[in-house]
Amino acid sequence: MASKNFSSKEVDIDVLITELRDFFEIKNYKIDYKQGTSGAIILDTNKAGKPYDFLGLSLRVTVRLNSGSEVTRIWIGNQKWVDKVIVGFSGLVIFVCQGTIYLSSFSFGLFQVGLLLLKLFSILLILLPALGAYLQYKVTQDVWNMIEDHVALRSTVNP
Q: Which domain holds residue 132?
């Protein structure tokens, strides 16, 4: 979980939460808005479902905003990485096992076509979670960029 501190003068919590909710709603995320301990505001966002989970493309980001009199601390965490690791590892195992079967078999025909399709499927199971990991990283960076743009805009308006 990464966090950054900003001057409370530079962060308008209500405006920032609206901007973040709009960002996630446009991207079809399910958003859960909670009031956390010590007055923290938590946006728990999730883009998942059976096809996303199966392919390692589900995304999750939790943003926690804790505003004090001098400092506003923002945490981003709880990204979803486990599904990507499991699907990618499964694809790798299928790819390796399929390779040993392919090397030990001497028959041709439908069996070879089936093995070729299995190889393509296993390659997809390796590449799609890699894409999911990139998308998870990118959405986290996009949220940080949005927060920093908000702070930069507020600091120029209220010097």
A: 2-82+125-157
